[in-house]
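Section 3.1: Structural characterization of target chains.
Under the original work plan, the team committed to producing a structural model for every single-chain target entering the pipeline before any wet-lab resources were allocated. The record below documents one such target. The sequence was received from the expression subgroup and is listed exactly as submitted; it comprises 243 residues.
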Amino acid sequence: MLVENCLIPAWPVPKNVRALQTTRIGGVSIAPYASFNLGDHVGDAPQAVARNRQLLASLMPSEPVWLQQVHGTVVADADSAGCLTQADAAVARHRGSVCVVMTADCLPVLLCDEAGSVVGAAHAGWKGLAAGVIEATVQAMDIAPHKLLAWLGPAISQRAFEVGEEVREAFVVQHAQASEAFIPGANGKWMADIYLLAHQRLHALGISRVYGGEHCTYGDQARFFSYRRDGVTGRMGTFIWLE
């Protein structure tokens, strides 16, 4: 069954908050997208992507609001039938509205409040993270940050995430503490800890209850897609909704 191949976030959320993280296992796509690719923009056969999305139907209360992600900070309203879908985050307050972000090394961030009244999902690659996609999502949720919980899904780990000086500078120029998330690599490069960078941003907002962050997409080829590792590859989905 598909659900057996998915990850269920382990975080102490209200009973009406549901979340799901897909892996690369359980679909119909063939290599290099094998097998549960949800991205319709990566070159996979459209019918395979459609079938993979159909397989999710039994696990979801409604069709997820699929976003056209552009590494920005726009937040979509998943409750609106005509919501803007060129965005990198979504929030929902209505029961059955499903937020989703797709990743293959970038960091998916799920958010909800302790009362179970609002949920959000953010696509936090380094560009979006530096630009403030988490902050924009929290602002759209309109809840005091100390009442929010966060879960960090599978992303590339520091040992595999080599970046240039411009990436380090993009963070350090905003917060000096961000320098702690970079260690020297080879040839003037840096190894970036995207999980620590997200933790710092969340804590700066006043969100102290942060969970997840234990998976590496690059290192676990059997379970996860990784753009940095494979180049041409599929996308996983990170979903959240209110029952």
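The domain at 2-231 is CATH 3.60.140.10 (CNF1/YfiH-like putative cysteine hydrolases).
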